Amino acid sequence: QTRVMLRWSVYTDECSEDTDDCHIDALCQNTPKSFKCICKAGYKGDGKQCEDMDECDNDYNGGCVHDCINIPGNYRCTCYDGFMLADDGHNCLDVDECQDNNGGCQQICVNTMGSYECQCKEGFFLSDNQHTCIHRSEDGMNCMNKDHGCAHICRETPKGGVSCECRPGFELAENQQDCRLTCNYGNGGCQHTCEDTDVGPLCGCHQKYALHSDLKTCIETCAVNNGGCDRTCKDTATGVRCSCPVGFTLQPDGKTCKDIDECLENNGGCDHLCRNTVGSFECSCQKGHKLLTNERTCQDIDECSFERTCDHICINYPGSFECVCHRGYTLYGLTHCGGVFTHTHTHTHTRTHTQSVTVCLLT
Length: 363
Prior knowledge:
Elements: H1 14-17, E1 26-30, E2 35-39, E3 43-45, E4 50-52, E5 67-71, E6 74-78, E7 83-85, E8 92-94, E9 108-112, E10 115-119, E11 124-126, E12 133-135, E13 153-156, E14 162-165, E15 170-172, E16 179-181, E17 193-197, E18 200-204, E19 209-211, E20 218-220, E21 232-236, E22 239-243, E23 248-250, E24 257-259, E25 273-277, E26 280-284, E27 289-291, E28 298-300, E29 313-317, E30 320-324, E31 329-332, E32 336-348, E33 352-362
Antiparallel strand pairs: 1-2, 3-4, 5-6, 7-8, 9-10, 11-12, 13-14, 15-16, 17-18, 19-20, 21-22, 23-24, 25-26, 27-28, 29-30, 31-32, 32-33
């Protein structure tokens, strides 16, 4: 008596049946025997317990050049007033306020990094609202006089003199007339970071950038992450310039290189077949042709020029050939010719008979 033991297993999909104990911010992934929990992007932990990862809490400030705001499972970059977020979601670019209604200035609007300022034409000075212009007076030492000397705001004193004040974000210089910029106004004219010093704002840049010769603007540099370029990176006075090798084209983002499919235009110059490759292309020929040294042109192969291509007669055609046999011969296969004859064999036993055998002779 033979006993047969049968074993079977029942597959359980814990992830679909919600019988897993993964954290709410984790993903359940089935395995051959069980399941495992993996924390979602932006979270850290063993999958059973997941906590938000603060992407802003590192030396790179999450890659943000101004403010980094951590949110559950993610983060976002924001910019100071006077700046706008670049397309990469990290860098901050100056907003040209003068392009919109002349910045609200009555006469002249001058854009600056992170801000702007209104100026007046000759014979006028800027009023306290810093936008409108007032005609100067030639009489007396008062705020209407063109020689009052205040860089920003002029106040008349009870004693008949003038007192100078500065706009918010500026501080009055030692001469009590000029106004010195601070980091509190337009980020001190700095594109990225600003530090107040005794001589004025000191600009700095995020780790991915280098300070421009104007000591305010931050530009990408090839020394860090190849300047973000896919292939070739070159440092210029205005930042990095990316370029691509032959067979690739630079994309609108100015950094990515995309393969050119040369076969799409005029078949790549190939006579017959064109096959695109990464950064290049290849020409090939149809059967019965060969590629010439220019790697574009296809030439017919004259098979009849080879020795013993056909047994008898060889006729060449473009891309092919044909074998023909002499009269009285039959073509066998593609190239061979054979003759046909009849052999009569007679032998005698109790009776005589004749047998004919057809034999093919190849020549």
